[in-house]
């Protein structure tokens, strides 16, 4: 089997994730969820702006 640095990095990341637990993943999921809610609210509410013509 030849040396593949990409596979070695992936294996190292997987073993590190097992040791850390769900904390970092949960943080990322919560940040993405909050940003998604903010962007969705902005997108929906920008249509309610009144234009005085």
Automatic annotation (TrEMBL):
Q: Does the keyword Membrane apply?
A: yes
Q: Does the keyword Transmembrane apply?
A: yes
The UniProt keyword set, sorted, is: Membrane, Transmembrane, Transmembrane helix
Q: What residues form the membrane-spanning segments?
A: 25-45
Please, which domain of life does this record's source organism belong to? Bacteria
Designated name of the protein: Membrane protein
Q: Which organism is it from?
A: Streptomyces resistomycificus
